[in-house]
Amino acid sequence: MTVLQIDIETYSSIDLIKSGVYRYVEAADFEILLFAYAYDDEPVTVIDLTAFEDLPDFILHDLTDPGVIKTAFNAAFERTCIAKHYGIVCDPVQWRCTSVHSLSLGLPGNLGSTATVLNLVAQKDTKGKALIKYFSVPCKPTKVNGQRERNYPHHDPEKWEDYKSYCVQDVVVERAVRKKLERFPVPEKEWRLWALDQRINDRGVRLNRAFVENAIACGAQCKERMIEEAKELTGLDNPNSDAQLKVWLSENGLEADSLAKEFMDILLDAAPSEETRRALELRQEMGKTSNSKYDAMARTICADDRVRGILQFCGANRTWRWAGRIVQMHNLPQNHLKDLELARETLLNGEFDFLEMLFGAPPFVMSQLVRTALIPSDGCRFIVSDFAAIEARVIAWLADELWVLDVFQGHGKIYEATAARMFGIAFESIVKGHENYRFRAPGKVATLACGFGGGRAALEKMDKGKEIPEDQYEGLVKQWRQANPNIRKLWYRAEDAAMEAVRMKSTVKLAHGVQYRYEAGTLFADLPSGHSLAYPQAAIKLDTKFDKDGLTFFAQDDRNQWSQQRTWGGTLVENLVQAIARDCLAESLMRLDKAGYVIPLHVHDEVVLDVPWENDVLVDDVTSIMSRPIDWAPGLPLKAAGFETDFYMKD
Questions:
Q1: What is the pLDDT of residue 147?
Q2: What secondary structure does DSSP assign to 484-522, as a single string?
Q3: What PANTHER family would the database entry show (predicted)?
């Protein structure tokens, strides 16, 4: 099949990074400046649309021809821009994304880094960033250009020629990357899933614009009041400054190396006076990150009140899970307000003081309400459905921890069953009102914290309600491991299999269709669903911390640097479990789409459906689709639960 490689350069007054491509193309001044393309191995051609050059008719035809595969690095950008500029439908079924292909192999998601890591002859032009800033975004007025808001080619013809060369070079590099990766193709099933993902992102999810605007106004009013209180309390010019507040705290008897949120509880406990405690509380309330999501919503919302492009396919490339983008929906707090609907209506009506009187500090309240800004389309309600304890089910299935599988095939009360097994008490006694109910909390925390080799630190992190005395953490770890011997064995079996595959450059089977395979310097974890996780540049190296050989591979670190990383069996199993759970969600998305459901959003292991009120579909119909057995995972007991709602929320 013919492949058409494409790269474009564009202009818009909307910030692409902050607002996303869908809002970007809605700007009245959006336009494509340059359109570079190449068929298969042919030379690259660039069309300068600013010079009134027209895209050839055969290109316009091929953009919608299903017999021609269109490809780009981050194809979602090219698809969306081309569709807007030319007023055509760019069917994602006809496209392939080289960035997704790169991510699927554990490589970076940006073109320059990928080309560098692959050590290609063709490399991205380093002038690009400056040229994009000059021609593709608004410029600040200067003494030279007066009120000029953007630079055109005639303002610097030499730079414009460089920009055209840069666009051509991007096609050259993208093609070189694509050809390099062809040895390890993305399965066609995954490309079909990506096409569905693109349609979900194209559709987007509706926001209540008035709700978002009121949330921002309420936050601004509250923050201004808190800053004034903090100024009066501390005497500081800027009490929101870490440096100034640390000095003030030190002068008032509290040394604070860091004011990061993970240290705030410790500092509050150590506060020597009511004044220092209140200063810290104000700092904590002013730093509520969830409220910044309202700003992201306001920047991203499209003319039809929908927010789009907030899911990235294979964004978490170690597991192929989706990642959140722009409006980050993957790290929201639970909603625990007693009357969520009343709080929501109060904010929507602009009754900010009444909201605080009823529910407490506005930053806390608004962080609880973020989800509720998302609403169904007109004439619809949301059906929200998610998998029950999906990771606990997958790891038990993968490890053949039969007693856990029996629980999930029966009553499903894994926290109570775990507690009964850990503490040697009757399962039936772990009910509210009985003294043994106190064991449910450690059973739950241990189940959530220990499955991937977590120890004391994992328990402490997962024990958010501080229901367990700290001196019991280490004992609970041992009890959980004794209760789940096959899961514990799986960590070491996975590590041994992966290391043997690397050491022997071979394929080693693990369990239930999972195998480790070493090929061309990369360790692959082949999954039963048909795709593979990748660990580039895998090697066996001495781990001086434990004085034994360990498994290493290369990946981008927190600073986006390509660096060597270590892993072990617990983390390998975590990758497998999360990847298989992702594949279960993928199966459900495809099934729900085939059944005619409209999917505006999914988050982690949860789907959100837009269902017309006149459609008498019941929640049970949706959960039954998600609970249906999967061919490639025989014996995996899936179960979903759901509910209907007029706005997005956690049940």
A1: 62
A2: -HHHHHHHHHHHHHHHHHHHHTSEEEEETTEEEEEETTE
A3: DNA POLYMERASE I, DNA POLYMERASE NU
The two tokens of residue 227 are 């800053």
The most confident of 329-343, 388-402, 446-460, by mean pLDDT? 388-402
Which pLDDT tens digit goes with each residue over 117-128?
Answer: 999 998 988 889
Q: What is the mean pLDDT of residues 484-489?
A: 97
Is the pLDDT at 104 greater than 90, yes or no? yes
513-553 residue pLDDT tens: 999 999 999 999 999 999 999 999 999 999 888 889 999 99
Q: What is the pLDDT of residue 144?
A: 52
Number of residues assigned to the chain: 651
pLDDT of residue 558: 84
What is the per-residue pLDDT across 161-208, written as a single tens digit (0 to 9) for each? 999 999 999 999 999 999 999 999 999 999 999 999 999 999 999 999
Tell me the CA distances in angstroms from 579 to 105, 495, 526, 533, 628, one per residue in order.
Answer: 14, 17, 11, 8, 19
Tell me, what's the pLDDT at 141? 65
CB neighbourhood size of 52 (10 A): 6
Beta carbons within 10 angstroms of residue 192's beta carbon: 14
Contact 384, 642 (CB under 8 A): yes
And the tokens for 592?
A: 């729900």
Q: Are strands 598-603 and 532-535 parallel, antiparallel or unpaired?
A: unpaired
Structure tokens at 275: 């004044």
3-state secondary structure 521-536: CEEEEECCCCCEEEEC
Contacts of residue 274, Cβ cutoff 8 Å, sequence gap at least 6: none
- pLDDT interval class at 459 (50, 70, 90): confident
How far is 250 from 613, CA to CA, in rounded Å?
59
What contacts 645, CB < 8 A, 6 or more positions away? Answer: 381, 382, 384
Closest CA to 286 of 234, 232, 240, 246: 240
Structure tokens at 143: 């003494």
For 590, the token pair is 């495809």
Q: What angle do CA 42, 46, 48 make, to 5 degrees?
A: 165
Task: Tell whether the torsion through CA atoms of 552, 556, 560 and 562 is positive or negative.
Answer: positive
Q: Is the pLDDT confidence value at 229 over 90?
A: no
The distance from CA 531 to its chain's CA centroid, rounded to whole angstroms, is 20
Q: 43-93 pLDDT, tens per residue? A: 999 999 999 999 999 999 999 999 999 999 999 999 999 999 999 999 999
Structural domain boundaries in the chain: 2-186, 204-375, 402-483
DSSP string for residues in 588-637: HHHHHHHTT-EEEEEETTEEEEEEETT----HHHHHHHHHS--TTSTT--
Measured CA to CA, the distance from residue 589 to residue 67 in angstroms comes to 26
Q: Which residues have a Cβ under 8 Å from the Cβ of 231 and sit 6 or more positions away?
A: 237, 239
Strands 306-307 and 205-207: antiparallel
- In the CATH scheme, what architecture does the domain 2-186 have? 2-Layer Sandwich (3.30)
Q: Report the first-to-last Cα separation within the chain, whole angstroms.
A: 48
CA distance 397 to 527: 14
Three-state SS letters, 132-196: HHHHCCCCCCCCCCCCCCCCCHHHCHHHHHHHHHHHHHHHHHHHHHHHHHCCCCCCHHHHHHHHH
User: How far is 611 from 598, CA to CA, in rounded Å?
Assistant: 7
Residue 278 vs residues 239, 268, 600: alpha-carbon distances, Å? 12, 9, 42
Bridging pattern class, strands 374-375 and 321-324 = unpaired
What integer pLDDT is reported at residue 148 of this predicted model? 67
Q: Hey, what amino acid is at 181?
A: L
